[in-house]
Fold this protein.
Amino acid sequence: MKKTKDTGVFTDLRKAVEVKNAKIKSKYTDIYPETITEQWDKTMRVKGEMVNLYRFTCTCEQFTQSFLPEQQVSNLSNSCIHLFYLAKKHYPKHSRTSVIMRSFTEHGACKLIYRKYNEYEFYIGVGENPEKPWVRIFFHTLENDYWSDFSFNTVEKRWSYNSRPECGEQLEMQIFTALAQ
Ligand SMILES: [Zn+2]
């Protein structure tokens, strides 16, 4: 019997939208802080707010208003200056949590695409406005377990302050491929 090939034609448009949303969702990844010990499971007062770094919660408006019910607790996309204040005391300066939280606190959260390339791994940070040509790159060097961040302009094909990761050119190819998917 001849097999009918799935042509991807939807008779119900809602179904098509669902599939499209699922695809968009899978392109991006959620990111969580590196695990910390339970000794950090205590609520501390930071600049008038009650913060728990272990549970990754804060009472401030920035935190409570941007928290989405479907989101898992301790998603780094939902952090604030108070959590970052405590995180700086616990996480090394060039840990993934510190570097990404610093960027999110200073420039706002962004959606992240994860990629691995040879001995490197990195996240491409895409802002809410797709017209904006800048993407953030969170870059990990396995050798010394060192995270750093960079900005890349996808239209002018240049790195901010001329500061680029060690495999800069190959990485640019990876960025364009990831963004096109
Ligand atoms: Zn807060």
Summary: The pocket of zinc ion is lined by residues 49, 58, 60, 62-63, 80, 82-83 (CB under 6 Å). The chain has two domains: 31-91, 110-181. Residues 31 and 97 are 9 Å apart (CA to CA).
